[in-house]
Task: structure prediction
Amino acid sequence: MTLSVEQLQANLDSFDILTRKQALEELIENGRLSPQPVGTDTNLHFHTFFSFNCCGYSPTKIAWLSKMANLAVAGIVDFDVLDAVEEFFSAAKKLNIKATAGIETRVFVPEFHDKVINSPGEPGIAYHMGTGFPTASIPEDLSGFADKLRQTTADRNRGLVKRVNAFLDPVILDYEKDVLPLTPAGNATERHITVAYAQKAQQIFTNNDQLAQFWSTKLSAEINIEDLPQTVKLTNLIRSKTMKRGGVGYVQPDGKAFPLMAEMNNFVLAAGGIPTLAWLNGTTEGEQQIEELLKIAISSGVAAVNIIPDRNYDPDCEGEDIKCEKLYAFVELAQKLDLPVIAGTEMNSPGQKFVDDFNSKQLAPLAPVFLKGAYIVYAHSILQRNASIGYTGKWADENFETTKQKNEFFEMIGKSIDPDSENILNNINENSKPQDILNLINA
Result:
């Protein structure tokens, strides 16, 4: 039986990898690709369902939708794992999409131990990234660090569930039976746990009036029938009241709860990626000292920065927009320091866009900056994958006198090569000079 396009697209989100692959192949064979030329929009911060995607999108689905949206470059970034990387690269190659991949976690910055950076209410703790990973296959000596990231998250989740269970009784979760099945590879997040509690409560309180009363009592908020069973309003309240700061399940982390930023940077570099500072909105005490924070970050390996534009401007603002002003100031600083700037929406919370509105008056002036950063990270990825040379490391240090020169080279490579022509890089190696590579691709 021939499946409809709608059914095939739904199958792209199956937890079964073979179903996802088959659905993509059938969509391609049926000529369902977008006929439009590649545009200039980018999103290098998609979360897949291997951490949490609010729409349940798999890496293959994100690649497919990126192709249909004609993105210039698309990139995934999952929390604590690289589980999605190979699938995303495989799907992107079939679709001829320029693709990047990375990882996000929380780290401790000892120099800012008394200042909130970008993790609300948690001094010294920062969301931090690695981008431009060429592959998910990391050196054996890094496996312990990668395993610890995954295990630390799992242990923290189990402790959280135990505390929240005591508060929400009789709505009690079994972590293995109720939470992990919501994930394709066992990497659960607070958002998975939140959904699991909403589902469990619905099973226990089959009467909507009783269910609304239960949540109203437990969350100290008015929950109506129209908020059931797991609307954005309800799930946000469950998470904020039970898991975030001030909630019954929350435990204030200390510096020992997460790796040092420098340790994470070392892991990213050794795995072939680019350590990347994640910027929130410039309003916290830590980010108000952004020059000092960047100085510390760069000294330990950071070579790029990431922005979530949606958080940084008010599209309906007619007057002064403080967040937008801080966004422009941060981008200006990053450019002054020759740091590539990448951007994108996370899609880990309902309501977030698939792609930022780069035609808005606030983002239009920054769109070329984000596109340049995307090209640089993509170029790094393919050069690392094909020749073990990239934006960071010995080869770059020996072949570029300035970071500006390096940026121009990698931007040009990122513009010129796509997955269909990537095999041209098979003839280069660590002894190749930048001009040799440019001559090759321009031949």
The mean pLDDT is 94. The longest helix spans residues 143-168. The chain is about 45% helix and 10% strand.
